[in-house]
Design goal:
three-stranded antiparallel sheet; about 45% helix; PORR_fam
């Protein structure tokens, strides 16, 4: 697929503070740039986005259930809140898809035996760690610093709470941040009501800056420049196979040499149609994505914030014009902007406790629970269980042989495992009628004992060759290394052969005597 774009610049009026720094000769105009790019996927960044599929609605539902006094909710109430929770499909199907997080049960006094949902002990354990993080003073200060940075970037140092709600997930805010975090930092910001500032007819409350912080008004790029002692270029990394137009390569080289203007500076002196203004807009996007904990967010969130800043159209151009700085993917049904600099081999370059907790939720989502209470991780539609050597010997095999086969399966990456889990669920209905795949189906019970439900999962076709080769290797191994029982049978068979041969020789001799 080839993506062709033409960049045309237009002026825009922005209300800004008087500039604190003056720059001369910063109006190198560029009115038209034309180039052709071939869209190239980045598997690592695609996986970084795709692995969090359904995580946001899952945590939203978890928080809703936990706020109830009984710590449980009937399915009917969850159905009523489906849109606000952003559930991708029917609530009953969603909760049954993740039995390690949600437990379905029938309360004794329930009317008409309506099923209820509560959290599993594993989910409650992770939630407990999450609440401890939210309540820590260090994390609250990090939240305050992120909000303060966004307010200092804003054109009038105010941001509507409706926009903060859009960025809440990526800012790492708790659901009660208005009462649990903001009041604890009265010197940073405050919530005020301004009907004239109502954004898109939403909530008229805005978060307002109280005191400017020179210490925090330093961008990530400025910190790097200070360490190097000179202006540095934006880190650029293109996907493997990306073909760059020569004219774009020359332009990018010249663009990187332009002076860096901080996103916290007043850029009203820059012409909107200049390369310097474009570089400043890239710096604003770069700093905003660095402020966000996962170093990524939905494109719509950036455009909504850009609309408030008066930079919506320029945000769009910057995202398209700089594929080496920003990566766009639509893996989870919506366009997501990823800061390439924030990731290394598909994982965050800098670990954060908040993202570690989300990884635990993702791990739990890919883990199911059998009726006997044992945790079993699903990998490529199969169940990883440690079988004892005694059971192997009863079946005529050896424990070492099965461990070798399981070792081959464990060599698969976690990324492939999670991808295959999603594929297994999505292709479940289509694969039920395929007779060839029936021997590879694995059944495991996902409901409580009162609701004995069985869900079938299909192994991917790409693993069939490995399974067949593993079966042949197991058979050859058993032929070369027979069990004790098989050895006895072989010895008995040999003895019978010897006895029968002796009898045949004796009978032949007797026949000869009779003939003579």
């Amino acid at each position: 697929m080839t993506m062709r774009w033409i960049i045309l610049f237009s002026s825009s009026n922005r209300r800004q503070q008087p500039p604190r720094k003056q720059y001369n000769n910063l109006n190198h105009l560029r009115t038209l740039f034309e180039g052709t790019f071939k869209a190239v996927r980045d598997r690592g960044l695609d996986h970084a986005v795709e692995r969090e599929k359904h995580l946001k609605p899952l945590i939203s539902l978890k928080n809703l259930i936990k706020r109830e006094p009984s710590k449980s909710l009937p399915i009917s109430i969850i159905t009523q809140n489906k849109e606000s929770l952003q559930l991708p499909f029917r609530p009953v199907e969603f909760t049954r898809k993740y039995p390690s997080v949600f437990h379905e049960f029938l309360p004794v006094a329930a009317a008409l035996n309506a099923p209820h949902i509560r959290l599993t002990p594993q989910a409650l354990s992770i939630d407990s760690d999450e609440q401890l993080l939210y309540q820590s003073d260090g994390y609250k200060e990090q939240i305050a610093n992120r909000l303060l940075k966004l307010l200092m970037i804003s054109r009038i140092h105010k941001i509507p709470l409706s926009i903060i709600e859009h960025l809440k997930w990526d800012l790492g805010l708790p659901h009660d941040y208005l009462h649990g975090v903001i009041p604890e930092f009265p010197d940073y910001f405050r919530v005020v009501q301004e009907k004239s500032r109502a954004f898109r007819n939403d909530d008229d409350r805005v978060l307002e800056l109280v005191c400017w912080s020179n210490e925090l008004a330093v961008s990530v790029m400025e910190k790097k420049n200070k360490k190097k002692g000179s202006d540095s270029e934006f880190p650029v990394q293109f996907s493997t196979g990306f073909e760059m137009d020569r004219s774009y390569q020359r332009w990018l080289s010249q663009w990187q040499k332009l002076p860096y203007v901080s996103p916290y500076e007043n850029a009203a002196h820059l012409s909107a149609s200049s390369d310097e203004s474009d570089r400043w807009v890239v710096g604003v996007l770069h700093e905003i994505l660095h402020v966000l904990v996962p170093k990524k967010t939905e494109k719509d969130n950036l455009l909504i914030l850009g609309d408030w800043l008066g930079l919506r159209s320029r945000f769009k151009r910057a995202l398209l014009q700089h594929p080496g700085i920003f990566y766009l993917t639509s893996k989870i049904g919506t366009q997501t902007v990823v800061l390439r600099e924030g990731y290394k081999r598909g994982s965050l370059a800098e670990r954060h406790p908040f993202m570690d907790l989300r990884s635990q939720y993702i791990h739990l989502m890919n883990t199911t629970i059998k009726e006997d209470g044992k945790d079993v991780k699903v990998v490529l539609g199969k169940i990883n269980q440690d079988e004892s050597n005694d059971k192997d010997l009863e079946e005529g095999g050896t424990g070492e042989d099965d461990r070798e086969i399981r070792g081959d399966r464990d060599e698969l990456s976690e990324a492939e495992a999670e991808d295959a889990n999603e594929d297994a669920f999505e292709g479940e209905d289509d694969s039920e009628d395929d007779e060839e795949e029936q021997p590879r189906r694995v059944n495991f019970k996902t409901a409580p004992s009162s609701w004995g439900r069985v869900v079938g999962r299909m192994k991917p076709v790409r693993d069939s060759k490995r399974e067949r080769s593993a079966g042949r290797s197991t058979q050859k191994f058993r032929e070369r290394n027979p069990s004790e029982a098989s050895r006895r049978l072989q010895i008995r068979g040999r003895n019978k052969d010897v006895e029968s041969s002796v009898q045949r020789s004796r009978s032949s001799k007797s026949r000869r005597k009779v003939i003579t």
